Amino acid sequence: AHSRTPLMAGNWKMNLDHHEATHLVQKLAWTLKDAKHSYDEVEVVVVPPFTDLRSVQTLVDGDKLDLRYGAQDVSAHESGAYTGEVSAAMLAKLGVSYVVVGHSERRENHAEDDALVGAKAKAALGRQMTPIICVGEGLDVRKAGEQVPYTLAQVDGVYADLSAEEAARTVVAYEPVWAIGTGEVATPEDAQEVCAAIRSRLAELYDQEVADAVRVLYGGSVKSSNVASIMTKDDVDGALVGGASLKAEEFAAIVRYQE
Ligand code: PEP
Where does substrate bind (predicted)? Predict the structure, then answer.
């Protein structure tokens, strides 16, 4: 984990009103500024709803905040008759650095499959944004002990059409679905098992250089009280955080997990 810059990304999902969203960004930046020395090496990303991206851009640019921001989804299409979709070009114009693709909520609620998730990742990469590719098993698969093959099959599917150059610019988030929003966090050993398997698979699909470049995050009920133990694991390079990213102090404490 240690040659890669740790990444802490806060996925707000469909939460907060506009006022709360801008307030959270400002408060987070202030809280982190006070503690600058201890999170120097951590990359901090907020992932608001589309409708808040413009305001977040204004805050980050205007106040030169040491934060990056991402989108929760992107269209796989370049442009055209795709009502309701938002293109990678549109996001790139708003200064977006990261795009979450294939979140389990989109896989479940919008029937997104690995091929579509891969196409979305490719669209983001084409505009120099970093896709955060979400993978992970549900409870039935975990109970059957099939979490590694299940998750690696998702990796195979999503990366099928990505070159080594593209793959090296991705981030993977291992998010066991049973741990998302449930308060039930994977043990550090469980997280390490699958994150290490993902990295090995990237080495097989591409080469060791690609595997070493890709940051693999853990996601699923991460809080300030459990993040440090998960971050001790070699193949866990950060966290994708849902609920706990909605409060500035709590998310700042996650960023400052080394203290
Ligand atoms: C997520 O939505 O990516 C997530 C991990 O949510 P939570 O932290 O709330 O479990």
Answer: 11-13, 181, 221, 242-243
List the catalytic residue out of 103, 137, 193, 250: 103
What whole-number distance in Å separates Cα of residue 238 and Cα of residue 215?
A: 8
Closest by CA to 9, choosing from 180, 244, 241, 254, is 241
pLDDT digits (tens, 9 = 90+) for 141-177: 999 999 999 999 999 999 999 999 999 999 999 999 9
Q: Is 175 a catalytic residue?
A: yes
Place of tokens 């029937």: 111
Q: Give pLDDT tens digits for 96-145.
A: 999 999 999 999 999 999 999 999 999 999 999 999 999 999 999 999 99
CB of residue 222 inside a 6 A radius of ligand 1: yes
* Residue 181 alpha carbon to ligand 1 centre in Å: 5
Nearest to 33 by CA among 256, 259, 258: 256
Residues 6+ apart with CB under 8 A from 122: 76, 161, 162, 166
Domains of the chain: 7-255 (3.20.20.70)
Check if 110 is active-site. Answer: no
**CA-proximal residue: ligand 1, atom 6 (nearest):** 242
Interatomic CA distance for residues 202 and 230, integer angstroms: 21
Global pTM value = 0.97
Cβ atoms of 156 and 201 within 8 Å: the answer is yes
| Cα 236 to middle of ligand 1, angstroms | 16
Binding site as annotated, residues for substrate: 11-13, 181, 221, 242-243
Instruction: Retrieve residue 77's tokens.
Output: 């299409």
Sign of CA dihedral 179, 180, 185, 186: positive
Query: What is the rounded CA–CA span in Å between residue 106 and residue 65?
Result: 30
